[in-house]
Amino acid sequence: MKIFFITSNPGKVKEASSLLKPLGIEVEQLKFPYPEIQADSLEEVVEFGIRWLKDKVSKPFFIEDSGLFIEALEGFPGVYSAYVYRTIGLDGILKLMEGIENRRAYFKSVIGYYDGKVHIFVGKVYGKISHEKKGTQGFGYDPIFVPDGYDKTFAEMTTEEKNAISHRGKALKEFHRWLKENLK
Ligand SMILES: O=c1nc[nH]c2c1ncn2[C@H]1C[C@H](O)[C@@H](COP(=O)(O)OP(=O)(O)OP(=O)(O)O)O1
Ligand SMILES: [Mg+2]
User: Fold this and answer.
1) By CB atoms within 10 Å of each CB, which of 43, 147, 151, 179 scores lowest?
2) What is the rounded CA–CA span in Å between residue 75 and residue 139?
3) Is 115 a catalytic residue?
4) pTM
């Protein structure tokens, strides 16, 4: 089965393909830019994106919005993670976190699948913001995020290792479970 993933982010496609391909689902990237509204939740961004895309894309597709939520910064950068990454980046976040003891943070992923109806799948992974950038794998904030139970950043993990515990891996597994039950 082939499913279209509308995203500009090759890192997301790599993770989605690596998790779904062994389950018989081929993920094909569709680089079809869509507006990402400045809402307060990832769910609102995804629901708006799907409403905007559904009459423009004829095949079943999914999109994903995700972000890093830092407790000591009241959830910042959260929904604005992409903009913050592009502007102040990892060094900017580490600077904001200088001298802050509470390093708790979580990544959240919201997948929206459209097959005539909207289906939402959510995943979260808790961890800490590191004191320095470590690792070269993954993408985005991976070099400064250490998931709970590990002593290395997401950027020091393989795609498979990250997928086993990440927010996106959890949301994709929910998505796959739904596909298995509903596409018999
Ligand atoms: O696993 C992750 N590891 C590190 N960083 C991550 C992750 N997941 C999201 N992030 C960061 C990257 C981006 O700065 C923002 C997501 O923004 P988000 O709009 O969902 O993604 P994007 O603009 O890169 O691709 P697109 O909107 O075309 O799907 O949070
Ligand atoms: Mg985006």
Assistant:
1) 151
2) 20
3) no
4) 0.97
Q: What's the pLDDT tens digit per position in 22-42? A: 999 999 999 999 999 999 999
Exposure class string for 59-90: b at 16+ Cβ within 10 A, else e: eebbbbbbbbbbbebebbbbbebbebbeeeeb
**Rounded to 5 degrees, what are φ and ψ at 5?**
-110, 110
Asked if residues 53 and 102 have their Cβ atoms less than 8 Å apart, the reply is no
CA of 170 to the centre of ligand 2 (A): 19
**Domain ranges, residue 52:** 2-182
CATH code of the domain in which 71 resides: 3.90.950.10
What's the structural domain count of the chain?
1
Distance 166 CA to ligand 2 centre (A): 18
ipTM of the complex: 0.98
